[in-house]
Amino acid sequence: MDPSADSPSPLRHIPLCYDNANSEASALRLVLALEPDWKQHQNCIEFVKFTDGITNTLLKAVKKGPGQSRECIDQEAIMLRAYGEGTAVLIDRERERLSHSLLASHGLAPPLLASFDNGLLYKFIPGEVCSPSDLRRPEIWRGVARRLAEWHATLPISSISSEPNLEAQNGVPNGHRREDSPVPMVQQKRGPGTSDQAPTEEAPITSGKPVPNLWTVMQKWIAALPAGTEAERKRQAMLRTELVWLAGRLADTPGIGDKPLVFAHCDLLSGNVIVAPTASPDSSSASLSSQQTNGSDDALTSVSFIDYEYATPAPAAFDLANHFAEWGGFDCDFSVLPTKRQRRDFLQAYLVSFNQHLGRRYRDEELEQLFQDVDAFRGIPGFYWGIWALIQATISHIDFDYASYAEVRLGEYWAWKENLEKRAVNGKEKPPRERRWAEE
């Protein structure tokens, strides 16, 4: 295989910005810079603003001509994705661009058309956005399982990560790296009371692994947490201690098929799962209900994933556990999380696809191992999104109660850890999420 096959092609850059306060005018300038031929149809251009995402604004630009079908209009439609203010502390936008380019080269994402100063332009994917309840439908989750397996089995992490820290592998202590070391360092945010000297730096929490990865991303987020008060500093130190404990416990999970780290989506919530259109181009989301639901391969629904801003090398077990947590939606409805049987069925469909893409035979013992690995990671999504929400509570202007969401998600983590360490011993009743996870 040509090693350059997965290298992203140069992407055109448009030196303009999207302005949320002047949305349509700034979006129109960007679209016309990309497609000058649209100028003669300027009066036919419309923008559909999707609900503001948690970290982005998303617009669909369409050029409507007389007598054109919806299918024809959508084939020419352009998506405009503008980055949310202050989100650079959470999201590596260059890694997002590289992820999107790689996925597009594998036919797993829409083609990128151009970048602009605060966002991206790319082709529109026709289809219907899932709801949390859709994720629990057999024909949908089978499609998700197979598509996610394709990601994990076929996509190289080398396009979005560097080589491992070889110094750490060879016994050089963290913090004693050469100046020419390629490993990026995490800069800690200073708060009141710190000196005016250069900020301290942290070595990557994982040694001998490609960076970034799940653990170094969380390390960076913790370093970016507010630390202006004593309470904030104590919380930051506590979360840092927890991360060290987690990495020591789970960072060396071997994975399946000699893949300890995979190209993980890391944000596979319902809104990022797109169901392919049915035969009728004008079918609506209600058509999802009319499809077969017997769980057989014949009932498999084709799905695509969107929004790659959190894509990072991570254990497959994390990506899977994180998706299962999203069955409950933003409301964190623990009562609808997958039971043991549902998780086992999902993971079997995943492994069949995973092995097919690698040219291997499916083995039952791999199912048992992956089931245990996902179980071991079930508390980590709460920790991951809890930290994320603590940062969002300080930077986001979106009308969402991030502070409360942070406590709910971190509560998932603490419930998992308490169940792991104490509840099995002292006989206390398990919290709701842990009870649901244990159901057959």
Automatic annotation (TrEMBL):
It comes from the Eukaryota. InterPro entries: Kinase-like_dom_sf. Pfam families: Choline_kinase. This is ethanolamine kinase. Its EC number is 2.7.1.82. Residues 162-209 are annotated as: Disordered. It comes from Coniosporium apollinis. Belongs to the choline/ethanolamine kinase family. Pathway: Phospholipid metabolism; phosphatidylethanolamine biosynthesis; phosphatidylethanolamine from ethanolamine: step 1/3. The lineage of its organism: Eukaryota, Fungi, Dikarya, Ascomycota, Pezizomycotina. Residues 162-172 have a biased composition (Polar residues).
